[in-house]
Amino acid sequence: MIDPLVRQEIRYRHSLGESERSIAQVLGISRNTVHAYLIDETRGMQIHAPARRKSILHKANQDQLQYLFNAVGGNCVVVARIIQDDPQAYGLPKNLSITERSVRRFFATHYPNLRSKTKPAFEPFHCYPGQQLQIDFIQAQFQFDGEPVAQKIYLFEAVYRWSRKGFVFVCPDTSQASWLMGIATCLMRYGLPQQILCDNDKSLVISHRRDEKFNFTRTSFGYVNL
Question: Coiled coil located at which positions (predicted)?
Fold first, then answer.
């Protein structure tokens, strides 16, 4: 092992474009040593990991801890709150104070198999041709030519799910009239699907119950029935 100052000198000279042979001659060490320290930046360094304090949860009844963790679906916030409300029920000292972070770290280290699997960033969705059109309203900022600042605009957007064909329509607002104008324009241009999917906007849907019963908004043309 060489002196830390020599190790730094090797890297400094090499960063200036000096050859390994030249560095070895100047510093009085072998070329192989210079090469070894250049390809391994941690060579000769002593890395000490900080010692972590043992979690208080080691003293708890482990069977009860695992049962609690599974019962709440791995929610560490709930686990921490339940344990703190009655720590003695889990074999822990009275007046215990524990955080969600401590609970998460403990279970991640000692019971990694109990942790719920990470959900994928997206789930694929497929439908057959002609099945579904998805619609929504979004707000955007647009700076018109000659205007000093950007203005808020309302965009009706629709996507035919089977082909990914998109449709965008600028509306004056997000009222029911704008919804219907956007839908009608889209259907006249690209065709009528079997289903139109929206996000329960109040301009179209008053309520959507879990039993799949809907209460649609009434218009001057009757009920909006999507």
Answer: none
